Amino acid sequence: MYAFLWRHLPGPVYARILIALAVAALVVVLLFGWVFPWIEPLMPFSGNTVSQ
Question: Which residues constitute the domain of residue 1?
Fold first, then answer.
């Protein structure tokens, strides 16, 4: 899969690296900004079971 993506990125090696890093950063921002907060209430470990 990574070889397929690498072959289809345009430009020389340094441009491919920059594009790959930018895409990875965008994925991280999207996950932490929208996806994880959206699914957090659905996760079973979000309830606190420790009491005093």
Answer: 1-30
